[in-house]
């Protein structure tokens, strides 16, 4: 071996000696080296598991928060519901009290007008109406009063004799045919060609029987509108009458009372005849109806009531408006299937129009 090679080997040996010695020391010293987890990249499945756990924890926390919110909201709703129910009950009581208070004047008013009529001899009370029958003794005639409170739109109607223009039947026959509890004769009539036709403007079920006829002479129209209110007077054109939304009505002469004051009775009707059986329809300020029927032995003027006397009765009973309907032998008052008045013809007359009442 050449001297240069030997020199190189010695140099390498001296250079490696510290490393070899350190390795031997580590082996005999039992020292372990631990690297942190971050020194090793995680597998993708592990990362996904940790993310799911984080989401689960987040969802659980959200559910806890939602539950707490729901509990608080439920308590709030229950509290509000309790307050609402209490308020609703209070309002119902207030409405009930207010209604009772509002209805009190009407009850007082009804007692007043009823006391003027006396004690009813008969009462019919149902969901549709309240009808009361009174016997009234005047100085010169016997009369009857029918006070009616309409509670329903179908509690009253006007019908044609046998439901056909030109036909006629008694009020009793109409009452029986329709199953009504009460009935009274309605408007005037004119005979022609063996038939009996309603006089002038007549409306049944909202329709004109023979068209509109402008008011002439002392004629008037009276009937009920869709609000169950009595309407009447003289009308020069159809638009005036149509504006009142009339359900039914008939015509005759004359008007007796307007706004509580008696009208001037035309001289012709004061003596044609002077006294006679009469039928009158009127209304009170609370909407109730009053029908008066006066007896008379005949139409010759020797018995019955004058129109002035009927006006006095209407005023005494406190009505607002009053209208004279067909009288004489036409006057008819039916109550519970019985003829109450005493027809001057000795029997009921067949008529073309009738007012009927239903319970």
Please give the number of β-strands.
Answer: 20
Number of helices: 6
**Strand-residue proportion:** 25-35%
Radius of gyration: 50 Å
Overall mean pLDDT score?
87
Strand arrangement within the widest β-sheet reads: 1-2-3-16-15-17-13-14
**Global morphology:** elongated
Structural class: alpha+beta
Uncertain segments? none
N/C terminus separation:
148 Å
Query: H/E series, N to C?
Result: HHEEEEHEEEEEEEHEEEHEEHEEEE
Describe the structure.
A hairpin with a 2-residue loop joins strand 13 (255-258) and strand 14. The chain is of the alpha+beta class and 359 residues long. The radius of gyration is 50 Å and the shape is elongated. It has helices at 3-29, 44-117, 171-178, 238-242, 267-270, 307-317, and strands spanning 122-125, 129-137, 142-150, 156-160, 182-185, 189-192, 195-198, 203-204, 207-208, 220-225, 230-233, 246-252, 255-258, 261-262, 278-283, 289-294, 321-325, 333-335, 338-339, 353-357. It is built from six helices and 20 strands. The strands form five sheets. An eight-stranded antiparallel β-sheet has the order 1-2-3-16-15-17-13-14, covered by helices on one side. A five-stranded antiparallel β-sheet has the order 4-20-5-18-19, covered by helices on one side. It has a domain at 120-357.
């Amino acid at each position: 071996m050449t001297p240069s090679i030997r020199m190189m080997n010695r140099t390498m040996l001296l250079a490696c000696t510290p490393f070899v010695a350190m390795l031997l020391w580590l082996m005999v010293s039992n020292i372990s080296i631990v690297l942190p987890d971050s020194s090793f990249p995680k597998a993708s499945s592990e990362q996904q598991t940790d993310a799911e756990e984080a989401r689960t924890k987040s969802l659980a926390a959200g559910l806890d928060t939602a539950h707490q919110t729901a509990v608080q909201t439920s308590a709030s709703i229950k509290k509000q519901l309790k307050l609402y129910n209490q308020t609703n009950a209070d309002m119902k009581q207030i409405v009930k009290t207010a209604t009772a208070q509002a209805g009190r004047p009407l009850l007082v008013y009804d007692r007043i007008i009823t006391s003027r009529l006396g004690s009813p001899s008969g009462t019919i009370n149902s969901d549709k109406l309240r009808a009361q029958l009174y016997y009234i003794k005047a100085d010169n005639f016997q009369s009857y009063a029918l006070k009616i409170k309409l509670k329903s739109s179908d509690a009253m109607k006007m019908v044609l004799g046998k439901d056909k223009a030109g036909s006629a039947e008694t009020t009793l026959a109409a009452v029986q045919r329709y199953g009504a509890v009460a009935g009274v004769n309605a408007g005037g009539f004119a005979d022609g060609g063996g038939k009996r036709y309603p006089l002038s403007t007549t409306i049944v079920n909202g329709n004109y029987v023979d068209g509109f006829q402008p008011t002439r002479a002392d004629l008037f129209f009276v009937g009920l509108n869709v609000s169950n209110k009595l309407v009447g007077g003289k009308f020069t054109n159809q638009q005036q009458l149509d504006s009142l939304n009339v359900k039914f009505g008939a015509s005759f002469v004359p008007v007796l009372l307007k706004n509580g004051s008696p009208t001037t009775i035309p001289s012709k009707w004061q003596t044609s005849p002077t006294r006679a059986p009469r039928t009158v329809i009127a209304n009170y300020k609370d909407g109730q109806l009053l029908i008066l029927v006066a007896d008379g032995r005949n139409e010759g003027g020797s018995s019955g009531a004058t129109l002035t006397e009927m006006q006095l009765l209407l005023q005494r009973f406190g009505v607002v408006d009053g209208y004279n309907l067909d009288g004489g032998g036409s006057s008819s008052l039916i109550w519970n299937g019985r003829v109450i008045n005493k027809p001057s013809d000795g029997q009921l007359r067949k008529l073309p129009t009738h007012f009927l009442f239903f319970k």
